[in-house]
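I have a small job for you when you get a moment. Can you supply me with one protein entry, sequence and fold together? It will help me judge whether the discrete encoding reads sensibly. Write everything out right here, beneath this request:
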Amino acid sequence: MVVTNNVVLPEESELTVEEVNLSTATLRAGSFHLGKYCENQNNEFMLCRFEEQDPRKCINEGKAVTACTLEFFRKVKKACLAEFNQYANCIDKSSGEYSFRYCRKTQDVYDKCMLENLNLERPPFGYFCEVRVHDTKRPKPPVEEKAVYPDATPALPEDAEKKPARFGSRFYWMTE
């Protein structure tokens, strides 16, 4: 994309949304359930970004992802706050790289709470790597035809004299 005077940038008011102001450990603790809860909005946003090739056209889809994330964490706060905080604290304090492996017991307690209170099961290992077809109501953007340019230099005629290279072949490995 070439930036010219014709490029229209969105106003700041269009870009302003309530942010998800959470720590890394908190986001990692809720990541699996969040991914499953907001799967449709995330897929819609990623499809828009891939098809449109212009992030300005996907602002509303991005806002939907942020709103879904906020809604998810508000529900977790109402239903499973103690279990979630225990799990997030374990992830934060147990290793320098926020590893899940040291926190399986608190994860199990949190997963059971999410299943009982929000009816949201933790997705199985590899769930987000599986291929799925996303059905969207947004129309597919028109495909831009590639520009065809006339050949600036015509080819040599077949009967043109072709002198040998002055310093031997370019393919030096073939001449020895």
About this structure: Helices lie at 12-15, 24-37, 39-52, 59-94, 104-118, 172-175. The first helix runs from residue 12 to 15. The CA atoms of residues 5 and 11 lie 16 Å apart.
